[in-house]
Amino acid sequence: MTNMNLYSRNDKMFVYLNMFLVGVFTLSTLYPFIYIAALSFSSGFEARAGNVVLTPVDATIAAYKQVLSEPAFWRSYLNTFIYTIGGTLMSLAFIIPGAYALSRPQLYGRRFWNLMVAFTMWFNAGLIPFFLNMRDLGLLDSYFGIIIGFAVNGFNVILMRNFFEGVPSSFEEAARMDGANEFQVLWKVYMPLAKPAIATIALFCIVSRWNGFFWAMVLLQDQEKVPLQVYLRHTIAKLSDDQEFSVTLIDAPYSVETVTAAIIVCSIIPVLLVYPFLQKYFNKGIMLGGVKE
Amino acid sequence: MTMSPHNAPIVEPVPVEDPYAPPKGMDRVVDHLKREWQLYVMLLPLIIWLLLFLYKPMYGLQVAFKDYSIFKGVANSPWIGFEHFETLFGNDQFIRAIRNTVIISFWTLVIGFPVPILLALMFNEILNATYKKWSQTIVYLPHFISSVIIAGIVITAFSPSAGIVNTFLGWFGVEPIYFLTKAEWFRPIFVGTGIWQEAGFQSIVYLAAIAGVSPTLYESAVVDGASRWQMMWKITIPSIMTTIIIMLIIRIGNILEVSFEMIILLYQPATYETADVVNTFIYRQGLQAGQYDFAAAAGLFNAVIAFVLVISANALSRRYSRTSLW
Amino acid sequence: MRKLSLLSGLLLTTGLAAPALSDGHLQIVDEPLTLTIQMNHKRYPTYQEDWPVEQAARAMTGISLQDATVGANITSDQENTGKTEALNLMLASGAIPDIVGSSRLKDFVNQFGPEGAFIPLNDLIDEHAPNLKAFFESRPEIANAISAADGNMYYIPYLPDGKYGRAFFIRYDWLDKLGLEVPQTVQEYEDVLVAFRDGDPNGNGLKDEIPYFARQWPEMIRLVTLWDGRSSGSDTYHDFYVDDGQLKHPYAGEGYREGIKNLARWYEMGLIDAEVFTRGSSSRDYLLSENLGGATHDWFASTSGYNTSLADKVDGFAFKAFAPPASISGVRMEEHRRIPIKPDGWAIGHTNEHPVETIKYFDFWFTEEGRRLANFGVEGEHYTMVDGAPVFTDEVLNSDQPVNNQLYGIGAQLQARGYFQDYEYEKQWSNKFALEGIALYDEGDYLIDQFLGVAFNTDEQKVYDKSWGSIRDYMLERQQAWILGTGDVEADWDDYMATLNQMGLQDVLGVMQSAYERQYGG
What we know:
Low-confidence stretches of chain B: 1-15
Number of helices of chain B: 15
Shape of chain B: flat
Oligomer: heterotrimer
Radius of gyration of chain A: 24 Å
Distance between the termini of chain A: 19 Å
Number of strands of chain A: 0
CATH superfamily of the largest domain in chain A: MetI-like
Number of domains of chain B: 2
Largest interface: A-B, 118 and 106 residues
Radius of gyration of chain B: 25 Å
CATH class of the largest domain in chain A: Mainly Alpha
CATH topology of the largest domain in chain B: MetI-like fold
Strand content of chain B: under 5%
CATH architecture of the largest domain in chain A: Orthogonal Bundle
Order of helices and strands of chain B: HHHHHHHHHHHHHHH
Number of domains of chain A: 2
Shape of chain A: flat
Distance between the termini of chain B: 26 Å
Structural class of chain A: mainly alpha
CATH architecture of the largest domain in chain B: Orthogonal Bundle
């Protein structure tokens, strides 16, 4: 079905027009990244003066030198990986079995349990009670606390449950006939079929972990444990303070703008790499698996 | 199709019996648990997590009705009833902020909700794998770029002297407009920026849903001579409808949530009239740091409204499309 | 072991020499005493025991501090509210350290001190802190300004030194080129800005000059002083001011009305940057380096720096301070000045078992040696005494790091510590153009007294919270509308004043006045 010969003239028009429109939108969304990259390779002064538009002005790698030579940068980069990988695995461990159970019609109190999940999407305790709860659980200032404390998000559970509900029941009948239990049905039938959904949930977890900074900021005391986003905020706060009050920094080859841009570029690269990897699960036909409705 | 109890239909069925009704007799419970204990083992960690991390600290919500002192603690702070709510609703600017929030959210919903779906459908129609892969990767990039930078780009783009928008309008003889100080332009700019920034990322969930559509459906459609356009309308969209509805219900529940950071960066006193939302109002009143009771009252109001909307949307959806959050 | 920045690491090795300076006359305790401390500031989120300055202080006093900071990692972009958040977490967690040092401390201790979370300092100072006592006796207005509504002092502030903050700047080379004199009156100022607009002083043949610009748009509003208006009473924008013992708000005065009318005219005429509301922090760099901007109102130190950094880029570049032009009634006024007290500093937690030793420790930083240590670092390492005055060493002055950065790195100039800054510290590395400008302002004595704030009691706070935020929003909305020409200040004024009163401006002024009289003795 991917053979162009199968298409009529109208279809071809449709296909090309579609490609063109997607292309225009894509280019527009590429701009911020180009801008940031250009900024990160520009001189501090030009960046601050707003003279960078598309390409580096007064090109220099001073910002990268400044960023990459800082051990705290690498440390926080590593931390972000720890939180992202650990946190995503933890999330999936809670969400997949839980969402599967919630999707089964024979579960008693199913509506109640689902409501209990959905309720947390709108009602939350607020900063101080949450903080005190984490303290009482002994989870302040620890990697584990950050990883487990944000493992579940109601939206992801509901999304996952919805995907499981969408799997036609015919798929599991063979397994049932063979006497498979719920664990086996989930593992052998649903998990392979739900790959696009799992990839989506995993991506959402990765992205929120990767971008997240607020709770790391609140719960972590030790500078050694902070993720990249918190490090970035510290750096911005310090450099903008310097710039405001120090005459000597007018001439520095880097500025808060270029250093910020360099850190953002560094932080986006892994995200750029992970998406194509997950993307293959979004391709059509993943549900083939030999069983037809 | 056999009617085995293990069958999971595509959409949730209208329950034959009230699920909250207790099973008749202990025997049935024991019998059920014997047969289905594995499901409860799977569910248990999730429920324990929710209780331990989210429900346990919810006692904190009561500060909305208290004169909360952090030093005294929640339990020892005096009750003051609805005073915080009265203060909020006694303020004309708060009322204006609610109105603005709803209007901005409404437009974000009406225009912004379909865009990611459309984008996912358009991606689905791209046949060149490389083109598809690259464009998909790129469109979700703005999601990773902080509001400060996106706002900087927007301010530059709409600048009267150097902005691309005014340059473009200039070709048609339009005098430069100082967009960001014009109350009437704030909402279109803000809503447009949000859609542009998030559409790519939001399309992922629909791409995944489309990936779940059985290819056999398309194969038979091709045999029947259906065009791409027809297949999109007859197969793809109906197949992802439950996902669309679930997303829509959640989105309706977020009607009072507006990207606060972006508004702070883009608005001016000159545009408060159309731009000031609940969050920015609370922020500007200097209530964000320390006045947890006041913020909790505003948050609770927000959550209750959102939840009422979600309950209604959920009930409607349950009735008419048999899709629901719970 | 915490990681040190390269700089403080290097200095650490040499800082150990400090004990040699101590002869014991500043010793507070015989047995070493350790106190816990929350020390939170954006430049140094936690207390570092190995700061050379702290090592020296420890050797001199016998008191060691131990870090117990909660919320160390909380940062925030706007207004530094993250530090308040950190203080709130500390308080909520129930473990208040012996000493609490932070930015944004004043409102916090003045709220929770009276509730019992912090120890009142007045009696302690009277009995055990001769240096602090002498300081407050010589500056009673500062003692008044930091007091809470119950009349007690709960914190020792960081006290900035040096009066001068912002000044009027203008392109002297453009004036020369157009054959103009430095403007002395508001009319001359207007004429100069018109000439900048029309006379092509940058010589590129285009009418692209922007006569007046500002990084923060309220600096443009500050020009209302040229028509005898006011824009703020303190270093915070849109603040109240004191006029002959009466609390007033600048945006409800006749001079303001006249000023806004004229600023709207200037904006319309193109004398003020058309994009003043959105150009933001980049405007100074951009407009100066592109040779487009003619005049502004900005900080002495940083603005003067462009004379050096743009010397090669813009031919003949001379952007220097000039005296405030005389207003329509002939008054020359520089409304902005550095505030003499900051809301930053330190306080004593209620669970501290050694309040006497702690206040003596606070007092140590107000001794001559302590103050020098806080300002200049360790003698022999960071400064030497020349003719009885501290002078930074060449290593400090000639480093590629800004001097204040180096000082933070060694634990000097920490604003989460209560100390009295010595302007001499800054003067030694200030740009010569800045010093020239300051001398000019010093000569003319253009500064005015500032409003140092009031502490409300609960009832006053309620009145203020209820109305003030909305009133200020309304004032700013009207202000921008008038400048942008979407409203006419003359036509709107009576309605505007009526609305302000209806929104409760008089009530707010009433509670400000009663708090002011209580605090400053009328």
